[in-house]
Protein 1
Amino acid sequence: MIDGEKLVGIISDGDLRRLLEKRGKDVLDLTAEQAMTKNPRTISTAEFAATALALMEEKKITSLMVVNEAGKLEGIVHLHDLWGTEMM
């Protein structure tokens, strides 16, 4: 979710799985804002791909939101994006 140009939350597949386990079909009554993870893990546009990979491994996540210095969402890097590189 974006507020103005600033990233304020995301809904990941893990978020949905956890919500379904906890609330069952009632999850369908939630708004995106209620279901999202506020303040998701991010990485700066200035960071190296190796840093993104290390952070994903450390936090056991598959995606990172890429933001600029102002917190504006610039993109998403996914673990699968890095698999094709020589880092893995």
Protein 2
Amino acid sequence: MVHGLGEIETEAPPVSIPDAGGVLSRALALINRVVVVAASIALVVASGVLTYSVIGRYFLHIPTEWQDELSVFLIVGAVFMSGAAVQARRGHIGIEAIAAVLSPRVNRIRQYCVDIATLMFCTFFAWKSWILLEEAITEGFHSGSSWGPPLWIPYSLMTTGMVLLSLQLLLQVIAPLQKRRAGI
């Protein structure tokens, strides 16, 4: 069992998903690589904004009303947008105690059932996110702070991230069926 970001976790190869010509898998892999870089940059920017806020408020007595929301937007965007990239490596937190006592066949079935349940949840979440995004755009929702940025920004990141995660999960659910049909 590994608890840190050790070599095992960061070096795991992405799950290979066969599809029609592999085009969809390759496109999602490319999107995931771009998103991971953007999410990493967003986290660095968020830490810079929060550091500026601490220095500005406590040492320079400069009011900063925007930094908390901007940091939350950046962090939420990074988390939601990188979900598909993490799922492609099966890097999400899992309970290994159950997998250790199951046979490989039963464990594959368990993992497949978990993938289906996760796909159903994430697809529902993506659909509700689309509704929330549409409302934010049509109703012109803004945050209640003095800065008042439009809420379609974080909602669009949440929606896009959940759609990408749902697509990644769909490809992972379909992969065993395609392998079975191909006789692999």
Protein 3
Amino acid sequence: MVRIFRRCVPLAAIFLAVTTVSARAVDEIQVYNAEIAKVGQWTFQLHMNYAFAGRKEPDFPGGLIPNHALNGTGEWAYGITDWWEAGFYTPFAVDQDGTPYYNAIKLRQLFVTPNAEKRELFYGVNFELSYAMPQFSDTKWNMEIRPIIGFRKGDYELIVNPIVDIGFGQNGEAIFAPAARFARKLSETLSVGVEYYSELGPLQSFLPFNEQQHNIYGVVDFKVGRFDVNAGIGYGLTPGSDRLMGKIIIGTDLTEGETSKPMQGPKSFRKADNLVSGLPRP
């Protein structure tokens, strides 16, 4: 793992050096907790979020208007080793007029500490590469670098994802968008928490505070049969934020995987004793 992170750090530095994410539609509102699928296991998550009261202007010319827009993605993931998970996304959106849009594809590689759900201190890093349609981003090619740092003690956990979104090309920028989660397990099938998502602006020059995005979500995690659910309501704290948002993520295991490993589910939704993202793709 140490060798992998040593290789990832200079790679991230190269990407930051050659670029100058641009504003884009968000299909995955999730805090990653470093838990991955078992070796040989396929998992699936459906991410959806809706702006009940959102920004009424697009983030860039020709972009989707956030207000009353539904954004989402399907996410398929596969456990390669006990520290490496690969996945891909199929993002989509429906605008305020009911017009559907498809946003090509995203690919990701997630590297973590093995058995993160059993550790007090856990960490990892996720890389996503995406090709975006013009309604979703003002750059065709984008990359997300998402470090994962978490601490768990008893029924409580605190996780931070200091995300950098990178857009390649003429309109590309490197945007700092940190996210965090604090949660408590109330029972074997229920946990509650607070999640925080932000977009501060380009790394070289943050936006004025009123133009930044700062959103706080009250969230609940629970199980329905074989499905793990994360649902939340978010409130925007600044004029540059969507004022009222709703989100839901539904995840399940598609295959059993390696039975010698402890059972795990998708990133934010594990078996009941591991409840307590997204925080997700993404």
Protein 4
Amino acid sequence: MPELRFISDPPTEAEALDAYSQAVTSVAEKLAPSVASLRVSRRVRGGRRLDGGGSAVVITPDGFLLTSAHVIARTDGTGRASFIDGRDHEFESVGADPLSDLAVLRLDTNGLTAAELGDAEQLRVGQLVVAIGSPLGFGGTVTAGVVSALGRSLPVPAGRVVENVIQTDAALNPGNSGGALADAQARVVGINTAVAGLGLGLAVPIDAGTRKIIAALMTEGRFRRAYIGIAGGSRPLPPRVATQLGRSSAVEVVEVVDGSPAHGAGLRAEDLIVEVDGVAVETVSDLQRLMAGDLIGQTATIQVVRGGSPLSVEIVPAELTT
């Protein structure tokens, strides 16, 4: 006969944990050993050094960590990384990409617990996410919330933006930068990067584009981008052209940088860029994604609409320097 329990009996510990609590607890237990607290020093005016911190996520058992580029900016690329089990190791920077705000570090150790990287492209607004990092120096701190918006833009140096940034209401504070933003399966879907305001945080997504950046930083120490030298914005296509191409917008050239590849190729203000090497361009982010390193020094064909008429322009992109 099953044991009888009265309504007035206090709930068991398992019953007291609702589904939300169980999900957050599970993520914390699985992922916290993979998140390090970083200590760095920055040079300031007068030759003094200012101590700071951040977080990082272990991505390989043999010592590669992922963090935010701004965490190690203006440092000598070294510091200390500590874990919740008490281990403490010196790290050195392998490479940083300020235009995505990502950096890769290396510890001279093995046997680390690597986090599983997820896919931010599968996220939905309202989905549970858990942030783990070292806000204000308190290592292993866990907060939870939801994806409050997707597709945000994060301004970075050189007038560029990181696209498809994740917005969350999980509490983030100084020191969370470089830490993990994870889904309910403890897969890292973002690297926390900024506090956007009261109750709003931003994270660089882990997706196909950022995986390429991470791989390049691990193997080459940098991520190369092509550069054509324009400022532009998304604009509607003329109705006739829109009907012909089967899409509604393109990138209008607002300004051409003197001496740039675009200037040499004869691109002009008010040109509408519709394709690069046969790939459709509708937004500035489309154009940025196409400026991959393998285009550097190679002839590319840009299709534009000038004065309502199509025009083909040959261009040789240069390497973007920051």
